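idk why but the lab printer keeps eating my pages so im just putting this in chat instead. protein + fe (ii) ion:
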Amino acid sequence: MRIWESGSAAAELNTKMFPELFLRSVSSFSTIAVDFLSMILRRIPVLKKYMEQTHQKTVIFSQGKTLPCIAPLLTTVEETLQVVSARVQGHFPEWLNGCLLRVGPGKFEFGKDKYNHWFDGMALLHQFKMEKGTVTYRSKFLQSDAYKANSDRDRIVISEFGTLALPDPCKNVFERFMSKFEKPAITDNTNVNFVQYKGDYYLSTETNFMNKVDIETLEKTEKVNWRKFIAVNGATAHPHYDPDGTTYNMGNSYGKHGSCYNVIRVPPEKSDLGETIHGAQVICSIASEEGMRPSYYHSFGMTRNYIIFIEQPLKMNLWRIISSKIRGKPFSDGISWEPQYNTRFHVVDKHTGQLLPGMYVSKPFITFHQINAFEDQGCVVIDLCCQDDGRILEVYQLQNLRKTGKELDQVYNSIARFSPRRFVLPLHVNLNAPEGENLSPLPYSSASAVKQVDGKIWCSYENLCPEALEEEGGIEFPQINYGQFSGKKYQFFYGCGFRHLVGDSLIKVDVVNKTLMVWREDGFYPSEPVFVPVPGANKEDDGVILSVVITPNQNERNFLLVLDAKNFEELGRAEVPVQMPYGFHGTFVTI
Ligand SMILES: [Fe+2]
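predcted complex ->
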């Protein structure tokens, strides 16, 4: 385990007190010797930081060292239907009573058919239940129609993001040819996130389907189709919530005049117990820059009064997508990174549904997850995990993730790292403002918003944590103290460092002082960190971080980790003798 603070006295101390000579001598030890040294040093807290710093240096600079194989984290596992007790080491706080619910792909083939892309795997639901210091675990495959149809026929019959379902081999040649022209079935394999509408939990991906689940039993209770309520073809798996339970989301629609990005509002109340997303409304439609080539987006930002939509040049070519089945290609073939276009920001008043007139543009970048957004001095401030190369979706093919040795290194080195960036969008642009003037009044941010000749506002970002994060492989899966600080000025966010193709560390970033803390254990891969506040606390980081930490090493156990969010020290871990794949997102539900 490694904990250090960058930009702080602790980091400076580490650098000063750890001479290069010792670094080199340690890196020349055999693996066994280093393991032995690690074991000894783990027991001496004062020396721990020195040893850990050494490890970091050897990983980055030693010759011939390759990334460890993570293929076991991306292979099919069994579901754990019977609740199993976890072995707790350290302690789980007595006040921490609830369930960490997570979802991700857990089955990657049916019969001889194999999925191509990580996003394609069948949804496996995980439940870690914490009660008075004890922890139990169970998991279950979502009984989606896609899962059932594939299971019944023992082959892939529903296409997923990166896998085209092939015609039934039992059909004759003519029937197989004609089946290419049949309307493709849309998947309901909702494997991305647990989301909430009107107090109920749903599993969501980005298609028009969601699956309502009983979070106690993990049973699917109802399949919900967005199209039955509003004219959208789906919604993101990252909605935002107002304190009163009103939920906002975004989804696309495709009409004869082209495609639109729609802001959706779902009311918090039910007038009938059996309701799902009844009362959902489209409150604003934003025309895409190009009618037949809307942008792909995975999330959006929200402040107290505004929705912020980012139109990035990761384009969905609708012609290619519509014709993909005929061409024998999966959906993913229709998505392309087109950096000749800029990234645009759209701001919508969430109370009136009005799209603000300001046209905000920046150099092309890609973002999947926003960190937080807030309003200050007439501006929207939005923080995002970004990078400049949008070809990353192609990289997450399963065959790439399962590579070993130098081939695996090549895959890793081909992708850019995600870093946290802050953009400032002035809301009320003075038409008489001179060109070239920075319209951001915020003294604490170097992000600028400069009026151009054409009236657009050119936005340049502030890097929220420039140097130390690079050594951690950048940061993704950002999370905040959402309940108390979503849409508000904030100081901390948490995420995974990516010194591998999946997260290999947990990071706490202080966006005000630009420092970070890191938790890492070699050979283990932590999931998205979920912040749970101490009941009644009002300090932003007064709480714990929960993360499911998994390993490809068959001799080690996976565990649920609980960290003190303040100092990133481990409070406890709950080991589970169950194989788990690397997943996407989750949430904590108090019981
Ligand atoms: Fe996501």
